[in-house]
Amino acid sequence: VQLQASGGGLVQAGVSLRLSCAASGLTFRRYAMGWFRQAPGKEREFVAAINWNGEIIYGADSVKGRFTISRDNAKNTVYLQMNSLKPEDTAVYFCAARMYGAEVAGDEYKYWGQGTLVTVSS
Questions:
Q1: Torsions phi, psi of 29, nearest 5?
Q2: R_g over Cα of the chain
Q3: Cα-based distances in Å from 68 to 1, 19, 21, 120
Q4: The predicted structure's pLDDT at residue 62
Q5: According to the model, what pLDDT value does residue 10 have?
Q6: Average pLDDT over the chain, rounded to whole?
Q7: Is residue 76 within 8 Å of 31, Cβ to Cβ?
């Protein structure tokens, strides 16, 4: 199983980015996909997850209304649309996969991607 995250970069506050995570080696439609992030010196934080059936869970209040998770089962890809980015969104963003139901806890996910760095300057 491979999860390949992409789309990160250095941006100014207020702009948008879309992260992608392409999965291979698994039956994608049966897996819940999650996005987590880890800022320098901080613990990993749950951002959002989407069930195999499309149900969504969002994490911190700070991302609600700005971030949107979606999936395209035909492309085996999950996305994280991030709008109105803030400096505090700076982190390495990881995608993760677990069968069926989405969970908030990272320990519940079996497969992890390598992460993509998002840096938001003020």
A1: -65, -15
A2: 13
A3: 25, 10, 14, 18
A4: 86
A5: 97
A6: 95
A7: no
Which residues, 6 or more positions from 72, have their beta carbon under 8 angstroms from its beta carbon? 78, 79
91: nearest Cα among 49, 119, 63, 112: 119
**CA 29, 7, 64, 108: dihedral to nearest 10 degrees?**
50
Query: Is residue 108 classed as helix, strand or coil in its secondary structure?
Result: helix
* Residues 21, 112: Cα–Cα separation, whole Å: 10
Q: Which amino acid is at 68?
A: T
* Burial 78-98, CB ≥16 within 10 A → b, else e: bbbebeebeeebbbbbbbbbb
Q: What is the DSSP string of 40-99?
A: TTS--EEEEEE-TTS-EEE--TTTTTTEEEEEETTTTEEEEEE-S--GGG-EEEEEEEEE
* C-alpha–C-alpha distance, residues 30 and 46, integer Å: 21
